[in-house]
Amino acid sequence: MSRQEFIITNIKPSTAIRHDYNSFSKLCHETQAPVVVTKNGEADLVVMSHEAFQKMMARQRLGRMLSEVDRQIAAGTPMRDFEETFTAIKKRIDSE
User: Fold this and answer.
1) Does residue 3 lie in a domain region?
2) Are 36 and 65 in a shared domain?
3) 32: closest CA among 58, 53, 57, 5?
4) pLDDT tens digits for 1-21?
5) For the chain, how many structural domains are there in total?
6) Cβ-proximal residues to 53 (8 Å cutoff; 6+ apart), any chain
7) 2 within a domain of the structure (yes/no)
8) Residue 10: helix, strand or coil by DSSP?
9) Model confidence over 19-46: pLDDT tens digits?
10) Residue 17 forms part of a structural domain
């Protein structure tokens, strides 16, 4: 796979949430993967832990940023010097 994609292996009926929320929540947190919730035998929802969701969103943001840089490079846009950029990032990290 060229992109970071989830392979859905966890499929649970909606009753799993209603009857045993704690176990369902534990599954989401331990696997850090989405869980397909079915209703009447059909896929209805996809549920994941908040942490897994945050990581997924961060990967998407990074992907968009890298795509933009790729477009800028292809267009010949002048880039910042590596050493200047690294120094600026280090200064930002040290000031936090």
Assistant:
1) no
2) no
3) 53
4) 444 555 678 999 999 999 999
5) 2
6) none
7) no
8) strand
9) 999 999 999 999 999 999 999 999 999 9
10) yes
In a 10 Å sphere around its CB, with 0-12 CB exposed, 13-18 middle and 19+ buried, how is residue 95 labelled? exposed
Q: Could you tell me the strand order of the sheet in which 10-13 lies?
A: 10-13, 35-39, 42-47
CA-CA distances (angstroms) from residue 41 to 15, 19, 60, 63, 79?
11, 17, 31, 35, 53
Q: How far apart are CA 26 and CA 15, in angstroms?
A: 15
User: Does residue 20 share a domain with residue 38?
Assistant: yes
* Helix then strand then coil, % of the chain, to nearest 5: 60, 15, 25
Where is 14: in which H helix or E strand? Answer: helix 14-19
- Indicate the residue type of 5: E
pLDDT, one tens digit per residue, over 70-86 is 999 999 998 888 899 99
CATH of the domain at 43: 3.40.1620
- Which domain does 83 fall in, by range? 53-95
